[in-house]
Amino acid sequence: MVIEFAEIDVKPGMEAEFIAGVETSRPLFLRSPGCHGLVLHRSIEQPQHFILNIKWDSVAAHEAFRAAPEFALWRANVSACFAAAPNVWHGERVVGA
Questions:
Q1: What phi and psi, each to the nearest 5 degrees, are found at residue 2?
Q2: Which domains does the chain have, with CATH numbers?
Q3: What's the predicted TM-score (pTM) here?
Q4: Residue 97 pLDDT > 90, yes or no?
Q5: Integer angstrom CA distances of residue 10 from 24, 37, 38, 50, 51
Q6: What average pLDDT does this structure show over 21-44?
Q7: 68 dihedral zone (left: phi>0; alpha: psi -120 to 50; beta)
Q8: Which residues have a Cβ under 8 Å from the Cβ of 6 and sit 6 or more positions away?
Q9: At 5, is the secondary structure helix, strand, or coil?
Q10: How far is CA 53 from CA 13, 47, in A?
Q11: Integer-rounded Cα radius of gyration of the chain
């Protein structure tokens, strides 16, 4: 299992719109082959800073999503909220349950 970490800063005042866009987009991810769920985290100290975690079978599954029409819909739902391009990387669990 691979976890995608997308660090996203949104424009001030657009936090609620961004959260709604992620909620609207959730089914786009979940119907994508190799996706096993997503969680959105928000910083308490910096409320415009979010971390989106998405569980994928592999990096290739994430790359396939990025090439699919669902990715364009996802971006249409949230990109107006972005203060800058997201910082995206992949990780794997090495300690913990």
A1: -115, 140
A2: 12-91 (3.30.70.100)
A3: 0.94
A4: no
A5: 17, 22, 18, 8, 11
A6: 97
A7: beta
A8: 51, 52, 53, 54, 86, 87, 88
A9: strand
A10: 23, 17
A11: 13
